[in-house]
Amino acid sequence: MQVVSAVSTTSASTTNAHSSKATLSAPAPSITTKVANSKILIMASIYGAPSTDRLYLDFRREVSGGSNTDNISGGARGITTVDGNIRHHISPHFLDSPAQSAGTTITYKLLFSNHAGSVSVSVGESNLAENGITLFEIAG
């Protein structure tokens, strides 16, 4: 098993509805698989503000020399939903099965959106708090 982590104070906002999620550029950790067909446990620690709408979160997988996959959970609205008009500490996690050969570099990023697409939602706390994503490779 190996562990890779990245942190950032990057923040972003979007009015995108759940069918068209925005991507938070950082943190964006990359892991190079040591074992073929291993699983990747993704654990994040993010600050988010749903404004007056719901905030939906999911992950994006970018395979070096391969394809990119948005919304890797497959859920229409993602893996985590946050309601309310206050800032939340959110800890989304997901066990990914990218089905790649050993030596493949995979980068993960956070996707976010709102329910209706008419109000702004934001993630990150620029210069105030770190957002983090940790990746764990687990032999399949």
Rg: 15 Å
- What is the assembly state of the chains in this entry? single chain
Helix content: under 10%
Distance between the termini: 10 Å
**What average pLDDT do the residues reach?**
86
Q: What is the element string, with H for helices and E for strands?
A: EEEEEEEEEEEEE
CATH topology: Jelly Rolls
Q: How many domains in all?
A: 1
Taking pLDDT < 50 over at least 5 consecutive residues as the criterion, the unreliable ranges are none
Q: Hey, roughly how much beta strand do the residues contain?
A: over 45%
Name of the level-1 CATH class: Mainly Beta
Q: How would a crystallographer describe the biggest sheet?
A: 7 strands, antiparallel
Q: Number of DSSP strands?
A: 13
Query: What CATH architecture would you give?
Result: Sandwich
Number of helices: 0
Describe the structure.
The protein is mainly beta. It has a single domain, classed as Jelly Rolls (Sandwich), CATH 2.60.120. 0% of the residues lie in helices and 49% in strands. The protein contains no helices and 13 strands. The radius of gyration is 15 Å and the shape is globular. The mean pLDDT is 86.
Keywords:
7-stranded antiparallel sheet; mainly beta; single chain; 140 residues; 6-stranded antiparallel sheet; Jelly Rolls
Task: Give the topology.
Layout: E1 2-8, E2 12-14, E3 22-24, E4 30-32, E5 39-49, E6 55-63, E7 68-69, E8 80-82, E9 88-90, E10 93-96, E11 105-114, E12 121-123, E13 131-138
Antiparallel strand pairs: 1-13, 2-12, 3-11, 4-11, 5-9, 5-10, 5-12, 5-13, 6-7, 6-8, 6-11
